[in-house]
Amino acid sequence: MYSIDELRAIIKDELDKKEYIQEPHSLFEPILYILEDGGKRLRPLLTLMAYNLYREDIEKVLKSAIGIEIFHNYTLLHDDVMDDAELRRGRLTVHKKWNSNVAILSGDAAAITAYQCIEHCEDKYLRRAIDFFNQVAMDVCRGQQYDMLFETRDDVSEKEYIEMIYLKTSVLLAGSLRHGALLADAPEHEYNALYEFGGYLGLAFQLQDDYLDVYGDVAEFGKNIGGDIVANKKTYMLIKALELADPETREELWGWIEKKEFDHEEKIKAVTRIYDRLGIKEIAFAAIDKYLKMSRDILDKIDVPKERKIDFYETLDAIGNRKK
Amino acid sequence: MYSIDELRAIIKDELDKKEYIQEPHSLFEPILYILEDGGKRLRPLLTLMAYNLYREDIEKVLKSAIGIEIFHNYTLLHDDVMDDAELRRGRLTVHKKWNSNVAILSGDAAAITAYQCIEHCEDKYLRRAIDFFNQVAMDVCRGQQYDMLFETRDDVSEKEYIEMIYLKTSVLLAGSLRHGALLADAPEHEYNALYEFGGYLGLAFQLQDDYLDVYGDVAEFGKNIGGDIVANKKTYMLIKALELADPETREELWGWIEKKEFDHEEKIKAVTRIYDRLGIKEIAFAAIDKYLKMSRDILDKIDVPKERKIDFYETLDAIGNRKK
């Protein structure tokens, strides 16, 4: 069995081969650029981990795991254009370093490259692999559409928000696991269980991101605290606050949202105080715990020796601890 | 055997079912919009025609033929953003009617929809169908990249231009034919021959488009004559003219290209006169004929009764006649 560090090194080596590059080089240069910025490689890692639950010959799933990472980066390329984002992990986004056309077309090439990678599997898995990948890809697209639709709405419910982040974030994590288990010849109910596990894990992870933006420790979180508050991002925190606030508090919150000129620190403090008053911290905490528990319950039932699942349990614990 | 009109009607009926639409509707509305604007449905038609060379049960290839049409429209959605085009077939482009983000994301959804459609085939064809589709999709992307790269170059050779339009236009026509023949269980050398046939046909068709922009009859061509000249589009005509012109004529031509303010009619007349002087009309004519002949030679060798190929021959004749 491989450790997470070993799997990460294997993914890095495979990416470094750059086998997916085709002519003209300029089409693939932005893909190289976004791929070389590091990132956690969470998705291919989950694919390899899921495969490794059942089998040792992980080289069989490696190319398609890389495909999932390339797919993820394709969504980042296009999302950054749509959000007009300046920076990603501290570096200029592709459409800022080059231009929007480059980000669109190289993104398209990345998506096709992902499809080329994903078909690296035995014939007997091909239809399901492609089917699943199509479903995941479409769900990610749908999630992004809901996210954009929600931007102009002020009545997004918790349920709608959970559905949106499920599609936009969880499904690809879930699909990465399912793909690995499928190619490892896991039984259908097990690869479906891993998909479900990944879905809840993704929800916990995303809610925690929302939570840490408000209550995280700058040094540990590695991002500036309050970025979502400054940008009026419709996070779980804001949606719950708008839902639970009495008319007066709601008005205060909207006052900050609509303010065009403000001191960043002042706004962050004021909104955080409102969250404190409404108990959003505890509510978010509870929601994260709920989804972690749901993941854990599914993981318990996956029928492989417990020692093979240890990295999965540790991942859950890490998310649990990260929130404190 | 089906007539072209019957096949067109079948394609229309299938598109009208709108079975590919998913939630949220707003994600698919722009896809519906661009699909409902008509168009020649040339690609799905070629798929059905190729299938119908060998088999009658064309419903078996219909869903994937629709996928190819949806793929084509995805490329139009993104190309129109990249070219900042105002109109397509007389209607506002998606990014002008909505905005760029809508065109990017709905385009992405259309691409995934195409992949979902293309897998409608028996298992024994699946890997090749997906392989081929990936190759075609990537080639179209590469063609668009070359096209964008050429915009800022003034030394594009005829060979480079032919390669670019081959990738950008021919390959999808060729792939549409190959896909139909593959699913009809045609032997490998025959579906490859149809691919080659489609490649040359596509070149003839694109060169003719370039030709008709200069020498076409407005009433018959249905576009304004000289649009490419006004826009300095690097067509076959312009590339050949720049290649063949003596220094003086070349300077005159560049003068027109670089002029910021000009009378449209005057520029069209002047550039056309240059083309006349250089014999570009006859050169383009000869090139179109060459590619039509290459198509015809391949078609002759396709081993099905001649009466089944009649629509293919008529298509070649129609392109041949269209240029007069």
TrEMBL record, chains A, B:
It is an enzyme of class 2 (transferase). The keyword Metal-binding applies. The keyword Iron-sulfur does not apply. SUPFAM superfamilies: Terpenoid synthases. Keywords: Magnesium, Metal-binding, Transferase. InterPro entries: Isoprenoid_synthase_dom_sf (IPR008949), Polyprenyl_synt (IPR000092), Polyprenyl_synt_CS (IPR033749). GO terms for biological process: isoprenoid biosynthetic process. Its cofactor is Mg(2+). PANTHER family: GERANYLGERANYL PYROPHOSPHATE SYNTHASE (PTHR12001), SHORT CHAIN ISOPRENYL DIPHOSPHATE SYNTHASE (PTHR12001:SF85). Belongs to the FPP/GGPP synthase family. This is Geranylgeranyl diphosphate synthase type II. It comes from Butyricimonas paravirosa. The lineage of its organism: Bacteria, Pseudomonadati, Bacteroidota, Bacteroidia, Bacteroidales.
